[in-house]
Amino acid sequence: MIDIQKNFSMFQILDENGNANEKLMPQLRPEEIRKMYELMILTRVFDETALKLQREGRILTYASCRGQEASQIGSAIVLNKDDWLFPSFREHGAQLLRGFPPELLYLYWGGDERGMNIQNNESFTVSIPVGTQLLHAVGAAWAFKLRNEKKVSMVYFGDGATSEGDFHEAMNFAGVFKVPCIFVCQNNQWAISVPRKRQTASETLAQKAVAYGFDGIKVDGNDIFAVFKVAKEAIEKARAGGGPTFIECYTYRMSDHTTADDASKYRDAREVEEWKKKDPVERLEKYMMRKKMLDEKLKQKILDEATKKIEETVKRAEAIAPQDPTEMFHYTFAEMLWNQKEQLDELHLLSRKKVEVAVHE
């Protein structure tokens, strides 16, 4: 067992050269490790494709998760099917792992809310406001406890969210009522253009949990084995009635905050280059090759399969018929306001004129 509450130095199993501390390694079969690797590759291909689609004008503003694959896959893979996941806007890997259809994710990032169809998925809708999902996750966990259900909720957020009031309210409630909620903070060092050192005077983010009466731990977020082990112990404790855990995944945002951002204006390129050496995908590849679980041929095969799957996903997403634009008026309020009715009439008028022009042409 890990001494979580006192462990604010970074917990690590797999270093950036792919060397593992075998004494700390979780019990994982080779096929389980390969599954983790395949999910990380799928996440990266999904992410790279999304960036290309955005630059081509085929989807809207997008938030990349490059460099954070281990933090997401290593934690979400421990959840049971009926546990609940609460993502922010960067948890594409965790959502793919949970079986969320990738074509719906592309649909959502293309501006179509039908992409957040969460039926039978135990994954909550993407939270664009920073930090609000923490309250939702704690509320769900409180419901699990009241119903005596052996479920847990896992909520993802960035270091920037720890500066929000919602974060503190959620942490306080979770600590007081000992709800089965796992807080996964992906400390990627930047809250848009604000560096972590300008966000808090705390030595670590994990230690904030102590003030609220529960355990916190800082883990190497680019080490999938360390994330897996910490998440597994936290979930087992929560399921047994031991309350919440705060996991600070120390990682890095390799891309811009979103495609609407230019990180080169505030971030030193040398910093990015140093973090590239800690790439979570390459780190796992080195380990697997050393253990004869992976070679160049298999590596290419896994990449080709992921690429083909995502290419087919894009075709399915773009084949979905556009949504009726009038729905935005019908579902904003229980009853349309007077100004909405005027706008709807104007839309109908413009549509008729467009049809008339097309006919005359």
Order of helices and strands: HHEHHHEHEEEHEHEHHHHH
How are strands sequenced across the largest beta sheet? Answer: 1-2-3-7-6
Rg, rounded, reads 22 Å
The fraction of residues assigned to DSSP E strands is 5-15%
Considering DSSP H and I runs of 4 or more, what fraction of the residues is helical? Answer: 40-55%
Rounded mean pLDDT is 94
Q: What would the principal axes of the Cα set say about the shape?
A: globular
E-strand count: 7
Quote the CATH topology of the largest domain. Rossmann fold
- Unreliably modeled segments: none
The oligomeric status of these chains comes to single chain
Gap between N and C termini, in Å? 74 Å
Tell me the number of structural domains. Answer: 2
Notes on the structure:
It is a single chain. The chain has 361 residues and is α/β, with parallel strands linked by helices. It has 2 domains: 30-319, Thiamin diphosphate (ThDP)-binding fold, Pyr/PP domains (Rossmann fold, 3-Layer(aba) Sandwich); 327-360. The protein contains 13 helices and 7 strands. The protein has helices at residues 30-55, 69-76, 92-97, 102-109, 132-146, 165-177, 208-211, 224-239, 269-276, 280-290, 296-319, 327-330, 338-360, and strands at residues 84-86, 153-158, 181-187, 190-191, 194-195, 215-220, 245-250. The strands form 2 sheets. The protein has a 5-stranded parallel beta sheet with strand order 1-2-3-7-6, sandwiched between helices. Strands 4-5 form a two-stranded antiparallel ribbon. β2, α6 (165-177) and β3 form a beta-alpha-beta unit. The longest helix is centred in the N-terminal third of the chain and has 26 residues, at 30-55. It is globular and about 75 Å long.
